[in-house]
Input
Amino acid sequence: MKHGFRRPLAAGISALALLVGTAQADQQFLDDVIVDGSLCVGQDCVNGENFGFDTIRLKENNLRIRAMDTSNSASFPTRDWQITFNDSSNGGQDKFSIDDIDGGRTPFTIEASAPSHSLYVDDGGRIGLGTSTPVVELQVVDGDSPTLRLEQDGSSGFTAQTWDVAGNETNFFVRDATNGSRIPFKIRPTAPTNAIYVDTDGDIGLGTASPDAGLHVTRGKVLVEDSDTGSAALAPLHIRGDGSARRMIILDQTTASSQWVIANYETTALEGAGNFGINLVGGGNMFRIDTAGNLYFPTLTNCANGIQTDASGQLSCLP
Output
């Protein structure tokens, strides 16, 4: 006896087999694709995926998004880029990276557990490192001595050298990290304005914003101290010039309207080339010693019998 349902059943089984056989086939859409809902991509997506607020979810054990530029004209850029989520190797990094595929480089990486606001760009273009509220173009925030390191690593053939620029509650400083972490430069908190000022012509002011000499000091005293405890002769202050001009130290008392000049005289000086003397500006030479060791008191002349002093120490000719 024949059964009439066999042909439809066979057709149904064939159609099911066809669907199963094509379930894994690639699909190509020749029109826009709009998904009204969320999208899960990856081998570990499941039916009934709980998306929460995710619009697109990538779900498997190797996650990559690659942008492959198929431009074939020499005048168009063709670089391929990739977003990488974690290393694929056992024991690799937990990270988020942007890879330059064609260049074989990874110019940008964020490691897992990086603190909040490690890098923050606000709406004014200001960059915060460790802060979400930068108030200047680049602001670095840390709980202990925020530091900027300048490292020449030798990759361009120059000697490796590392400098640190840092600041804390004690001082702002520059540190030579390569050579024993020496600190050749410091500024202490509350240092006054214009404590050090370098003008456009190279003049340096200490305490002034309008220096009028190579080194212009307007506040306090000047102390030159050599801490060397040896017995060798020292020259803690050395005034030298290569030209033929007079070398002078000027003592200017503005309230008394007087200027005294301690000088080493130039070649054409009336006081004699190379001689040492003391002059009063507007009053001429008051005292000098020539290179032979002779002493001169220009205010005392023709003292044939010698020189004497009175009770106040004033010099005069002996009668």
